[in-house]
Amino acid sequence: MRGGILMITLKNVQVSFHEQQILRDVSYVFEDHLFYLITARNGAGKTTLLNTIANLVPYNGDITFSLKSDDFFYIPHDYQFIPHMTGMDYYNLYWSLWESKADLTEIITALKINDFINFKCQIKLEILIAHQ
């Protein structure tokens, strides 16, 4: 949805694995032009939340998008990095494959990754980026 407001809306989202409820009645609206940091202890459901939004796990409840599926991308934390590529190499690769008017420098500054964007990728990364 170019030029519109990008939002992801979760309403009463629930996820369970093997009788264990991981997400319970999660409702939230992720709005356009904002960065969200999701922090919690290990095992709290951060990865499950992002996997659910990306439709990688079954869930109950409603998730609606005011954008098309090609307006965002998700890199899961178990993504296999190529050891000789830097973070900037990966951003440039994704930007070349994914049309965006977003300012990469602005995103790097907002995410506060300026100091290590040129390091070789040997960290786990989990990121969902939407653009218009």
State the share of residues found in helices, binned by percent.
10-25%
> What structural category characterises the helix and strand content?
alpha+beta
Beta content comes to: 25-35%
Uncertain residue ranges: none
Whole-number radius of gyration?
A: 16 Å
Q: Taking strands numbered 1, 2, ... along the chain, how are they ordered across the largest sheet? A: 2-1-3
Largest sheet: 3 strands, antiparallel
Order of helices and strands: EEHEEHHE
State mean pLDDT (0 to 100 scale).
Answer: 76
Number-wise, the strands total: 5
Distance between the termini: 7 Å
From the spread of the alpha carbons, the general shape counts as: globular
Per DSSP, the total helix count is 3
Key words describing this protein structure:
single chain; 132 residues; alpha+beta; three-stranded antiparallel beta sheet; two-stranded antiparallel sheet; 3 helices; 5 strands
Explain the overall architecture:
The protein has three helices and five strands, in the order ββαββααβ. The relative contact order is 0.22. The protein has 132 residues and is an alpha+beta fold. The longest helix is centred in the last third of the chain and has 11 residues, at 87-97. The strands form two sheets. The protein has a three-stranded antiparallel sheet, covered by helices on one side. A hairpin with a 2-residue loop joins strand 1 and strand 2.
Q: What would a concise description of this structure say?
A:
This protein has 132 residues and is of the alpha+beta class. It has helices at 46-53, 87-97, 104-110, and strands at residues 8-17, 20-30, 60-65, 72-75, 127-130. The protein has three helices and five strands.
